[in-house]
Write a structure and sequence with these properties.
The complex is a heterodimer of chains A (about 325) and B (about 270). With about 325 residues, chain A is mainly alpha-helical. In chain A, about 75% of the residues lie in helices and about 0% in strands. The chains are: A mainly alpha (about 325), B alpha/beta (about 270). Chains A and B meet through helix 1, helix 9 and helix 10 of A and helix 2, strand 6 and helix 4 of B.
């Protein structure tokens, strides 16, 4: 192969690829821990047996509980991380989060309604997706339609957010039965994972990830300002619409499966940006790998801390995320503008 | 009409923002391989004209013609390979490095199936070398001086490799040394690479020195267009800017130099004893 004409950028690409490989290794490690550690204490040998041999006594624990839970953590984590990164890009806000656009609140409100009125089991993906989509359209309409600007979108999202969360609280307070069913869901949890939960959300997450990756380059152009983006041949309205569709699919699916998990989508892209810079073609793959690392690590921590029972992973991410976030804010990183 | 060949021209354009009409029946042509500079008082519509030429603003009547066809009817990516534009409002994302920002100029040449290539790498390196920012490649853009930052933005526009390049007030917010640095760079790009450059400038003397083709605007209309020597006269400066002045030869370049008339004072100015 001929030598690269400029050594420096090629070296940087190499470093970025190496970092991504390292992140994947880390993900494998955390996923392994997530399968190995749980309420029922098993030795590594027993877990291995349970993984491979259908006739072993641990087979059921590993295959019915720990594997689906780990897979859900992988899928939901990747969805939340990428949704957060795309949200921060499309709103030009380094502290953006799908919650900022009201999408999590929309999903929550729809699930709360379905649970209280129709007696659905929490976590039905269609209601969550429908709620997320309706709120997304509403935020876009309120935010100015095709003339939407990042600031107007964020304001519209914040307003709808407040309204919808009040509504969810009201539904839960009025109906004791729904409260009981929604209590864990609204904190965020991987514990209810079954193999079919993962399978049901997977197509939406894959679609969302593909759209997100396809909009990475035009979103990078959009980051320079709408005029500069158009001068570069990007179409701001179209790009924002595609990015919003990706955010809706990803956070709608993740919220449906695990409830609103706060801070993962905000914090991971924010931290990853310090490694990769703001280039979405690198930022998105890194987020897709490192967000599940954070989510699974938080879930394993929740299981260890809560023994013999367990804590909700949402509690751990909220505490962990809150502390890290305070640290970032205090250091002034990323809130310069 | 002129017989000078022109790939980019505006014909009988009405330019308006939501409520305010800026120009009516405006016709203008950018001569090929010229360094065209548009001048005029504040709010005369010069930046609006540039935005229209870059298809960032759609004329409500008339049209911008690129190679004879309506620019608004051509796919925006295709236009972006012919016409580059450096808007005033560009923002550098937090923490982006010089090389990454310049690389974004390659956007119209890339697609889902055609991602980053060796060619892109070579062109980005070339654009950084041409603008003298190659040494800064790994530095974050936020840490650069105003002059360096402007050269980085120009490098990004160069990486877009368009035969036509439009610049909206590229010297604003720069001190005099950096203004000259940026304009010298533009002149060099025009001479050495044969690109057609169009810039909006505030400084009449700088415009007269660097332009090969000058367009003077007032109240949304072109008052005069042509070589600086023909355009910049005391009468025209009075008409366009309302400024009484004398026009002398620039001792450095021989181009017209505008010297504003001093107001008549009644008393003697204070003289040191």
């Amino acid at each position: 192969m001929p030598a690269a004409p400029v050594a420096r950028p090629a070296g940087r690409t190499g470093r970025r690829l190496a970092g991504l490989a390292l992140s994947l290794l880390l993900l494998g490690l955390v996923a392994g821990l997530s399968v190995a550690i749980g309420a029922k204490q098993l030795s590594p040998a027993e877990v291995w047996q349970g993984l491979l041999r259908p006739d072993s006594p641990e087979y059921a624990v590993v295959h019915r509980m720990r594997l689906p839970r780990t897979l859900l953590g992988l899928v939901a984590g990747a969805a939340l991380g990428v949704a957060g990164a795309v949200t921060q890009a499309v709103t030009r806000n380094p502290l953006g989060d799908p919650g900022l656009l009201g999408i999590n609140a929309g999903a929550s409100a729809a699930v709360a309604t379905a649970t209280a009125v129709l007696g659905m089991t929490a976590g039905d993906i269609w209601y969550a997706l429908l709620g997320a989509a309706v709120v997304t359209v509403a935020v876009h309409a309120v935010g100015g339609g095709r003339a939407a600007t990042p600031a107007r979108l964020a304001l519209a999202g914040a307003a709808l957010n407040a309204v919808l969360y009040s509504y969810v609280s009201a539904v839960m307070l009025l109906d004791a039965a729904s409260l009981e069913r929604l209590r864990f869901w609204t904190v965020g949890s991987l514990a209810d994972a079954r193999a079919d939960t993962v399978l049901r959300v997977l197509p939406f997450v894959v679609a969302g990830l593909l759209i997100a990756l396809a909009t990475a380059r035009p979103l990078d152009a959009l980051a320079l300002g709408d005029d500069a983006a158009r001068a570069l041949g990007a179409r701001p309205g179209l790009v924002r619409a595609a990015a919003t569709a990706a955010i809706t699919l990803l956070s709608g699916a993740a919220t449906a499966a695990c409830g609103p998990l706060v801070f993962v989508g905000l914090l991971v892209p924010h931290l990853v940006r310090a490694l990769t810079g703001p280039d979405l073609r690198w930022l998105l793959p890194y987020c897709a790998v490192l967000a599940p690392v954070l989510l699974l690590a938080a879930d394993v921590t929740a299981r260890l801390l809560g023994r013999p029972g367990e804590l909700q992973v949402g509690t751990v991410t909220a505490v962990l995320g809150g502390v890290l976030f305070l640290h970032l804010v205090q250091r002034g990183a990323g809130v310069r503008r | 009409m002129q017989t000078v060949p022109s790939r980019l021209a505006g014909r009988a354009m009405t330019l308006a923002y939501e409520r305010r009409t800026v120009a009516e029946n405006l016709t203008v042509a950018v001569p090929d391989h010229s360094f065209t500079i548009i001048i005029g008082p504040n709010a005369c519509g010069k930046s609006t004209l540039l935005r229209a030429l870059a298809r960032l603003l759609r004329p409500t009547a008339g049209a911008v013609l690129l190679d004879g066809g309506d620019i608004q009817r051509r796919p925006t990516r295709e236009v972006a390979r012919v016409v580059g534009m450096l808007p005033q409002s560009s923002v550098a994302p937090d923490g982006i490095t010089v090389a990454d920002l310049v690389a974004r100029g390659r956007h119209p040449h890339q697609g889902l199936l055609r991602q980053w290539s060796r060619d892109d790498e070579r062109i980005v390196a070339g654009a950084m070398a041409d603008t003298g920012v190659a040494d800064l490649a790994d530095r974050p853009v936020d840490e650069l001086s105003g002059g360096q930052r402007q050269r980085v933005w120009i490098a990004m526009a160069l990486a877009q490799q368009t035969p036509l390049l439009l610049l909206d007030e590229p010297t604003t917010y720069l001190d005099i040394a950096h203004q000259v640095e940026v304009l010298d760079l533009c002149a060099r790009l025009h001479e050495e690479q044969g690109r057609t450059l169009v810039a909006v400038l505030h400084d009449l003397n700088q415009a007269a020195r660097y332009a090969t083709h000058l367009v003077a605007m007032r109240d949304g209309a072109v008052v005069a267009a042509g070589e600086p020597r023909q355009v910049v006269t005391a009468a025209l400066v009075k008409e366009v800017f309302g400024l009484p002045c004398r026009v002398i030869d620039d001792p450095e370049t021989g181009t017209p130099l505008v010297v504003p008339a001093a107001p008549r004072r009644t008393g003697n100015r204070h003289q040191p004893a």
